[in-house]
Inverse folding.
């Protein structure tokens, strides 16, 4: 098979040669030194680097100052929270305190022992209800298995019944939950 030679018209070949001559990609190759490169003199590079360094230092200083302000603000909010954490509970207990004051006056002025007992029981009931409404719940320990996660054993005594071995026989101090978290362990007497 014969290869056909590609024939290019003469005026097109001249135009391609001319554009090729205009587009000389090695134009900078013959210029000595580095002056032909994009104005990268050492002083200019140093100035650029110094400006970038100053900018980064400024960002760093601002970031450190912002973090210090955050820590101070957070510490201040924590102190305020600790100081006012019990405010809601104390406010709700003021009604009970008022009832205690009234009961104390009534005790001093009355000789009816049954009426005094009834009044005191009402105050105690109101105190328990107020604390329960804030999430306080008494722990039931007597006749339950001894649990080191909930109980603190004060002493062991011989079990009065065989089924009370390793169970709580008596409660010296009640344990309490606050919103299902133990806030005080029950101090108990365990049967052995």
């Amino acid at each position: 098979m014969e290869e056909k030679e590609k024939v290019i018209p003469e005026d097109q070949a001249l135009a391609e040669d001319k554009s090729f001559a205009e587009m000389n990609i090695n134009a900078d190759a013959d210029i000595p030194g580095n002056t032909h490169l994009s104005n990268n003199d050492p002083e200019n590079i140093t100035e650029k680097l110094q400006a970038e360094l100053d900018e980064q230092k400024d960002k760093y200083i601002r970031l450190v100052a912002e973090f210090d302000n955050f820590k101070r603000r957070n510490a201040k909010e924590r102190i305020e929270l600790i100081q006012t954490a019990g405010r809601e509970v104390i406010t709700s207990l003021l009604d009970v305190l008022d009832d205690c004051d009234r009961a104390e006056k009534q005790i001093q002025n009355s000789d009816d022992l049954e009426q005094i007992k009834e009044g005191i029981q009402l105050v105690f009931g109101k105190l328990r209800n107020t604390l329960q409404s804030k999430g306080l719940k008494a722990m039931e320990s007597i006749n339950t298995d001894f649990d080191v996660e909930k109980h603190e054993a004060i002493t062991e005594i011989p079990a009065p019944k065989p089924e009370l071995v390793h169970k709580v026989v008596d409660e010296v101090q009640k344990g309490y939950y606050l919103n299902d978290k133990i806030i005080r362990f029950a101090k108990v007497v365990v049967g052995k």
Observations:
- The domain at 137-192 is CATH 2.30.22.10 (Nucleotide Exchange Factor Grpe; Chain A, domain 2).
- The longest strand covers residues 151-157.
